[in-house]
Amino acid sequence: MSAPSVRAALHMWVPVAILACLVLAVFAAGQLHWLDSLYEKLFGPPDLGEIAFETIQRRASPNDALACPPGFCGSARSNVVPPTYPATADALRRRVRRYFAAQGGGLVASDDTRLHDRFVVRTRFLRFPDTVDVEIVPTDAEHATLAVYSRSQLGGFDLGTNLRRVRALLEALGPGVASASRELRRV
Fold first, then answer.
1. Which residues contact 108 (CB under 8 A, 6 or more apart)?
2. How far apart are CA 131 and CA 123, in angstroms?
3. Which residues, in sequence order, are bridge partners of residue 144?
């Protein structure tokens, strides 16, 4: 290449490289909160609304995950069976709320009668909104388990994000008193 053509190529690619570096810096700093309002304008509120675990219908697309005690979620197939925890229902609920607060999730609805909370949680880099429902299920005065349903607002495939979120929550809550939660294949 001649010197003038090299200079012309540099003049064209230097601004593109600078812009790419700026975009990467924004991603690295996690400063994409403006995406929250953009997604809401384009796709509606990030909260996907209330569900009832007893009558839950799983999505046909693979962008949700369900952890449910046996018999609690009707005919819906669980990805994971959660353990029973050595904690009262109220204590387990407080731990779940603290976990999602630490993850940047916002509590958007709560039903104290059913011990049911709904959170909006966003993915780390592109801040895609997901709705997570959690219902605490007391097993006796000193033990409880829970049902968790995490689902994406955007896209037809979540690259396993919702299942990783459910597993991370169960792991963060600590070991259960029953056998460890078992993984189930989704059909």
1. 47, 118, 119, 120, 131
2. 11
3. 85, 138
From residue 90, alpha-carbon distances to 41, 71, 113, 127, 146 in Å are 36, 22, 12, 30, 12
| C-alpha dist (Å) from residue 79 to 2, 22, 145, 150 | 61, 39, 15, 11
Is residue 121 a contact partner of residue 94, using CB atoms and an 8 Å limit?
A: no
Nearest to 165 by CA among 107, 99, 92, 111: 99
CB atoms within 10 A of CB 146: 26
> In this predicted model, what pLDDT tens digit does every residue of 87-106 receive, in sequence order?
999 999 999 999 999 999 99
Residue with the two structure tokens 């979620």: 73
Q: What pLDDT is attached to residue 66?
A: 97
Q: What is the CA angle 96-100-101, rounded to 5?
A: 115
